[in-house]
Amino acid sequence: MILQRSFRYAMARLKIQPGRFRSGKWFAGKEEPPRRNYDYELTYFSAGRGRLILDGIAYPCRAGTLLIIPPGAEQRMICERVLERWSFHFDWFGDCRAHWEGNTAFVYTDSGETFDPAFCAAPPPAELGLQFPLSCNLPEKTAEEFLEVLRKYFMLIPVSLSDAFERTSYLLHLLSIALATIPEPPQMQKKRFNVRFARAKNLLEAQFQEVHLQIAEVARTLHITPNHLSKLFRSEVGMSALDYLQAVRLEHALHLLQDHSLTVQEVAHESGFETGNYFARLFRRKIGMTPSAFRKQNFIK
After folding, report:
1. Which of 138, 168, 176, 234 ranks highest by number of CB atoms within 10 Å?
2. What SS3 class is residue 181?
3. Sign (positive/negative) of CA torsion 30, 31, 32, 33?
4. Domains along the chain with CATH numbers
């Protein structure tokens, strides 16, 4: 399914990088000065009561409340009853400039220091359908699991490669729990089966390795215009016919790149791309790295 392909491309681009973390207790009446993060921040409350103000909107916080705050949002904490708060920062692609070039993960907005948006972490791929800020209250059993993993994450200080991998696994586990709380969109009413779309989809998937395959030719085969064909694809799978064809070709290329039996140029040709240069540019734009870099990360001996 194309949604699965889009999801896999989005996941291939991710390289989640942990940032700073902290935990502690806040006492009644304490207010945090307003600040803006350069990266994403996951905040979890294991006890107490308070309010987190994000861009002027108040989010009630109590035991089990979890929030994921995006870069640039102005936040400040108001404690009403002793709060136990855990927070860790992260970014989706491992290239947040604040992590590598900056001296801090955030700026207090009333300090006079300039907040530079150029240092902000990039949002996750649009194909994942994530919207922030995320706010939810975890069920009791889930909250217990989350806090247990959270403590392991905070307690483990990596001193070896094994430790680093283990800590990353805790981070991913925490994010998986948090993101599992996002409600699924209401079920869409099933559309009437479109025969022309199905035929076009089958043609593209059967002939994608043909270098000179053109969307216009497929449209002529179906006795419709290229514009009408692209509208069909946008209606059914959320992308144009050309984007779908590129997605099928890239998926095939991702598979071929996982061993060294073919050169990158040969992978491009076997996947239906006319030139290696165009393949490399498209691959970098869609996957976030060069084909050679992807091959090194996913080399199968």
Report:
1. 138
2. coil
3. negative
4. 14-179 (2.60.120.280), 195-297 (1.10.10.60)
Q: How far apart are CA 157 and CA 160, in angstroms?
A: 9
Mean pLDDT of the chain, nearest integer = 86
Tokens found for residue 109: 């907005």
Number of other residues whose CB lies within 10 A of the CB of residue 281? 12
Q: 238-277: per-residue pLDDT in tens?
A: 888 999 999 899 988 988 888 777 899 999 999 999 888 9
Residue 156: which H helix or E strand, with range? none
Structure tokens at 23: 């935990």
pTM (predicted TM-score)? 0.63
Tokens of 116: 């530079």
What is the Cα–Cα distance from 146 to 46, expressed in whole angstroms? 10
CB within 8 A of 63, min separation 6: which ones?
45, 46, 47, 48, 143
The H or E element that residue 80 is part of is: strand 74-91
Tokens of 219: 């449209």
Query: How far is 23 from 35, CA to CA, in rounded Å?
Result: 17
CB atoms within 10 A of CB 191: 9
